[in-house]
Specification:
Pfam families: Epimerase. The chain is α/β, with parallel strands linked by helices. It is built from 8 helices and 9 strands.
Amino acid sequence: MQRKAMVIGATGLVGQHLVKQLSEIYDTLIVIARRPPRYINASMRFYQVNDFDNLAEIFASIGADRKTDAFSCLGTTKKQAGSDEAFRKIDHDYNVGFAKLCQDKGVENFFLLSSMNADINSRFLYNRVKAETEESIMALGFAQLVIFRPSLLLGKHKGRPLESLGQKAFQLISPLVSESLSLHPISAKRVASAMAMSAHDIYHRSKYRTESVINSTEIIDNKQMLAMTRVKN
């Protein structure tokens, strides 16, 4: 069976690692972004979108189906977006819109990058919107939805000075911090690995399953991702 994957948010901190890893396990990788990802190979099909409001037009020419796994690493910050409304539009509306279009194509497995602090009752907009996005996509009823909630992401954060400052502080104390702690920062590459590993595991389990999975949601927290991607000596 020819395996296909589809990704948005492919040029972000996690997404740029994810496309490289997915290209090694899928026969075809569909990338939808405003600009080409850093890593490109022969298995990729790149669709450029100038405005995610017009994503439906792009989807009309995309050959996605029930054999396609969908991944979203799309996200921003209020500072980058420019306002509360713009932030919500990107983090919630675009993600949910993408999920709905995937569902219309028959996609059964959806993998969403969220945040450890997603909380519908949080006083912080970022945390509330992450939780609202999770709930909106859960309500669509994918056969299998996997949500990843990382802690502070380690990597080069363009335009995110506070997160960069947090990384520098962590580097000073990292030798003293155990990965068993749920708040332990995690590299973007390891989050991408956890997403790819999860999709690969679901694929192999499906070959031995006798009944279809209906509306299954799994949340993989930061501690689980650290454990999944720990390098064994």
